[in-house]
Amino acid sequence: MSMQFPKIPKKVNIAGFVNTRVLRDDKKRQVFAKYEVQRQALRYAVRNTSLPARTRVQAQLELAESHSYTRSTTIKNRCVASGTARSIFRDFKLNRYQFRLQALAGELPGVRKASW
């Protein structure tokens, strides 16, 4: 009987991750960035009518067979504090409720409550 050691998680770029949805979204962003240039080249080959039909079809098949994480449409903005995907402020990567809590606590630099 062999002993199995637990897998050590890979180093993650953004601190404050709470749940697996945020980790999965970060992984999607990394994979998309890695394959973006390759996908753009294939998309160009598919649309270029001056290329032979066989080359265009091969590029189209390669695009269709690529992993879904390489597509930009799978990326969703998520709150890094709570993991929710609704009402996200892109500059802070927080949803409106977490933004309000952290702003009132003074944890966001340059953010003050408005009063007039």
UniProtKB/TrEMBL annotation:
Keyword Ribosomal protein appears in the UniProt entry: yes
Any GO MF annotation of the entry: structural constituent of ribosome
SUPFAM superfamilies of this UniProt entry?
Answer: Glucocorticoid receptor-like (DNA-binding domain)
A biological process (GO) of this protein is:
translation
Q: What NCBIfam families does this protein's entry cite?
A: PRK08881.1
User: What family does this belong to?
Assistant: Belongs to the universal ribosomal protein uS14 family.
This chain belongs to the protein called Ribosomal protein S14
Upper classification of the source organism reads: Eukaryota, Fungi, Dikarya, Ascomycota, Pezizomycotina
